[in-house]
Amino acid sequence: MVIPETAKLVYSRPASLTNTPSHYCPGCTHGVAHRLIAEVLDELDLREKTIGVAPVGCSVFAYNYFDTDFVEAAHGRAPAMATGIKRVLPDRIVFTYQGDGDMASIGMAEIMHAAGRGENITVFFLNNAIYGMTGGQMAPTTLPGQKTASSPYGRDVEIAGFPLKMAEVISKMEGTGYVVRRSLHDPKNIRLAKKAIRHAFEAQIRGLGFSMVELLSSCPTNWGMTPLEALNWVEEYMVPVYPLEDFKVHPSLAEIKASPKAEEA
Predict the structure, then answer these.
(1) More exposed terminus of the chain, fewer Cβ within 10 Å: N or C?
(2) What does CATH list as the number for 30-264?
(3) pLDDT digit string (tens) for 112-123?
(4) Where are the domains of the chain?
(5) Which of 7-21, 38-52, 93-107 has the lowest average pLDDT?
């Protein structure tokens, strides 16, 4: 293809992403999250000093795409490994990239204690309300009434309890400095998600303690939907259960406003 001389480059792949075709299912928003994190790493000039940690699950594919140092943790143990790395190498930027089945189930003890200790790490928590890699079973974040491979008649709260709201829970820990929830279902919310990712890294740079950005994500394959239907489902059903809010913002992050609407303005 011949590119006209008048053509203007308006976007290019972030340097913090490898030139690797995506292996995620069509419509999955993991790729959007990757791009946003990579863009922020580039903009803050952090790529050469960043170490990522991802555990088992769809998050494990992150190693294929981020052009930063990365290590693999056992299922749910990414916060523990990130803790060790950050304590040994306190000058590095350390982040974990985790799914809801991983972080809110088998890894619940790890994330709670890392937050309680105020470990100066950053966590990106992808919440798609289902186990993605293992076949679409019910996760700790599955909505009431939501059908999954292991709850074919819908999640019964009388049997399985209510979904865990991790941002709300983590924000109550004294060691946390920045905890918010955003979504990846439309351009407006993607822009707000990028701002939150940047603020989370800034919190770590400033030594403000544990920071976490929860991102509502779609899983069309396991939800049995088209990509567009899945994005609409996030907005219609997930957002009412998981409100998009700032749950804790350290006072020294003065440029961060109290709400996503204020950020957008």
Answers:
(1) N
(2) 3.40.50.970
(3) 999 999 999 999
(4) 30-264
(5) 7-21
